[in-house]
């Protein structure tokens, strides 16, 4: 379970997130949908413990930014960052040590195989395409064996095949009980996978939906109104 309560974040004079509360149940796929500047990344980065904020965040019942919370979530940033001088395998080893993950060599091998990265494991960070870097970034996040996964605009810049693969991975994780939160400004990309949705604009959640409720409401229309 991921809970965000009265989250408020100000960057100097900009109120990026204004008293936002929501929760994503265990194993569900939650979406933060909103146009550029809505505050989605700020929420994801706050949950990932990268920002100071007001309000309360609980990840698997651990307070946000606590050492316990850090061990139960994985974070895939919008722009995958890799060390130029480390290989793919070394990135995974770095994560294993930094997060004291109990992932075994066999499990690491299976992770690389799942993402078709076995033949890339000796490649350096600066030798990979954006799509490959994103796969490595997801592997690194999964290497901590997370209970909660945070994806910031994960579909941007990916080709249709990579998007399909990513959605498959997200659905597999959800089936395995991992709680997922994805930020996106592209409703089309998540239409077939979402379970709870929070539509945002200007730092606020305008509407929340569950899949069952959405049949009776028109997310398209609301989203069109705020993005036109
Ligand atoms: P995008 O998809 O464009 O990243 P977003 O919904 O993720 O949009 P945020 O990146 O969270 O939105 O930005 C919310 C608001 O906070 C915007 O007005 C943005 O300009 C501002 N903002 C974000 N980061 C900073 C920062 N480091 N310093 C100052 N203002 C910031």
Automatic annotation (TrEMBL):
Leader sequence segment: none
Keyword Nucleotide-binding: yes
CDD domains given in the database record: ABC_DR_subfamily_A
Cited Pfam families: ABC_tran (PF00005)
Statement: the UniProt record of this protein carries the keyword Mitochondrion: no
MF GO annotations: ATP binding; ATP hydrolysis activity
Keywords, ordered alphabetically: ATP-binding, Nucleotide-binding, Transport
Alphabetical list of InterPro entries matching this protein: AAA+_ATPase (IPR003593), ABC_transporter-like_ATP-bd (IPR003439), ABC_transporter-like_CS (IPR017871), ABC_Transporter_VariousFunc (IPR051782), P-loop_NTPase (IPR027417)
Residues in ABC transporter domain copies: 2-227
Name assigned to this protein: ABC-2 type transport system ATP-binding protein
Species per Swiss-Prot/TrEMBL record: Lactonifactor longoviformis DSM 17459
Classification of source organism: Bacteria, Bacillati, Bacillota, Clostridia, Eubacteriales
